[in-house]
Write a structure and sequence with these properties.
The chain is of the alpha+beta class and about 400 residues long. It has 2 domains: about 120 residues, Sandwich (Peptidoglycan synthesis regulatory factor (PBP3), Domain 2); about 260 residues, Beta-lactamase (3-Layer(aba) Sandwich), CATH 3.40.710. Helices cover about 30% and strands about 30% of the residues. Strands 1-15-16-17-13-12 form a 6-stranded antiparallel beta sheet. A 5-stranded antiparallel beta sheet has the order 3-2-10-9-8, sandwiched between helices. A two-stranded antiparallel sheet has the order 4-5. The protein starts with a helix and ends with a helix. This is serine-type D-Ala-D-Ala carboxypeptidase. It is an enzyme of class 3 (hydrolase).
């Protein structure tokens, strides 16, 4: 149910506002198109077919070039593969210590690989390391088969998740980006996927590594070297994924973080690897030189507590449904922002994760950012005896 419908049904809707003193945001940042129009004057990503520069905290686009053009992503496809792996771990569907078997099909993958043998088993953590650092096509298929039963099943999950993220330019046909029909995405969609992946910051333990080993305890340990050389040479760079095929040319979805400010830069169709790295570095330099970002609430962070009408428990905690923050132009004056917590009357039963309100960040009358407030726990309806005891207790409390 949308928040608008929810509030509309409850005449007792509450509006709670507190004031935040934060760095100001230029009004244009509330409008993605206006932002892009302004920054396109900057000489960035000149040789890329398409590009996007995005603030990870707010999703604000700082620069874009042909950002919705549908293009083959090559191995940058694995951004979505890694996202589904991280989400499967968080959901308890798989564990890092799970042994992943290598099928004949997974072992047959060409291109970038970690040279898995049919029947060979590595832990999920080792497989992810092979995907993130060495771009292992074989490892990506092996993990997909383990999680979804088949590569086709995992691809279906990839396409479903892309739609949930608002990716309108994307169609996946495999899990690793090897050339095939009906497999494409855009720089904008890759930025959305990358932003979601970076909410799982533990993934940077792998995407940010320059080199490591697989099968360390074996007689033939396998040396991994990151295909993204910027993790070694660009300050703050900790991911995410490179890609190359003859059709896609050189692609990269990159993430860098400085002083809590994380930036996503995506380029597609670059002519060479050195040009790709140089243009991503320029995009990052532009962001860090001109902006800073402040995260107000991380996804899942406790924000508020609300009373539950006739609930089994009298109150439940409300959590941020997504990361929410404010993007600030460097050197701008301090201004006043309002943080509004918008709730309707909350009645039992309530399910964990159910949206019951929202956090709205405003600059004057302009909405800067918004995310759902979700229930932190289930709350069933209270029985008559529980309600009676609660009423009696309130009498004595009031009397005291």
């Amino acid at each position: 149910m949308s928040l608008r419908k929810f509030v509309g049904r409850n005449a007792t809707a509450l509006l709670c506002a507190t004031t935040l003193m934060l760095g100001s945001v230029a009004p244009a940042f509330a409008d993605e198109k206006q932002t892009a129009k302004q920054t396109n004057q900057v000489e960035l990503a000149k040789q890329a077919t398409s590009a996007v520069l995005m603030d990870a905290a707010t999703g604000t686009v700082l620069f874009e070039k042909n950002s919705h053009q549908k293009l083959p992503p090559a191995s940058v496809t694995k951004v979505m593969t890694m996202l589904l792996i991280m989400e499967a771990v968080d959901a308890g569907k798989v564990k890092w210590t799970d042994k992943i078997n290598t099928s004949e099909y997974a072992a047959s993958m060409g291109g970038s690989q970690i040279f898995l043998q049919p029947g060979e088993q590595l832990t999920l953590e080792e497989m992810l390391k092979g995907i993130a650092i060495a771009s292992g096509n074989d490892a990506a298929v092996a993990v997909a088969e383990h999680i979804a039963g088949s590569e086709e099943g995992f691809v279906q999950l990839m396409n479903e998740r892309a739609k949930e993220l608002g990716c309108t330019d994307t169609s996946f046909s495999n899990v690793n980006g090897l050339p095939t029909e009906n497999h494409y995405t855009s720089a904008h969609d890759l930025a959305l996927m990358s932003r979601e992946l970076m909410k799982h910051e533990e993934v940077t333990k792998y995407t940010g590594l320059y080199q490591d080993y697989l099968r360390k305890e074996s007689e033939k340990p396998f040396w991994l070297v990151n295909t993204n050389k910027l993790v070694r040479f660009y300050p703050g760079m900790d991911g995410i994924k490179t890609g190359f095929t003859g059709e896609a040319r050189y692609c990269l979805s990159a993430s860098a973080k400085r002083d809590g400010f994380r930036v996503i830069a995506v380029v597609m169709g670059e002519p060479t690897s050195p040009v790709r790295n140089a243009e991503v570095s320029q995009l990052m330099d532009y962001a860090f030189a001109n902006y800073k970002s402040e995260v107000l609430y991380q996804k899942g962070q406790e924000v508020h507590e609300v009373e539950i009408d006739k609930g089994e428990v009298p109150k439940i905690k409300l959590l941020a449904g997504d990361t929410v923050g404010i993007l600030m132009k460097k050197g701008a004056k301090k201004e006043e922002y309002q943080k509004e917590i918008v709730l309707g009357e909350v009645k039992a039963p309530v399910k964990k994760g159910q949206a019951v309100g929202s956090i709205v960040i405003k600059q004057g009358s302009t909405e800067i950012a918004k995310t759902d407030l979700v229930a932190g726990a289930d709350c069933d309806e209270a029985g008559m005896w529980t309600l009676f005891k609660r009423t009696v207790k309130s009498w004595f409390t009031f009397g005291g």
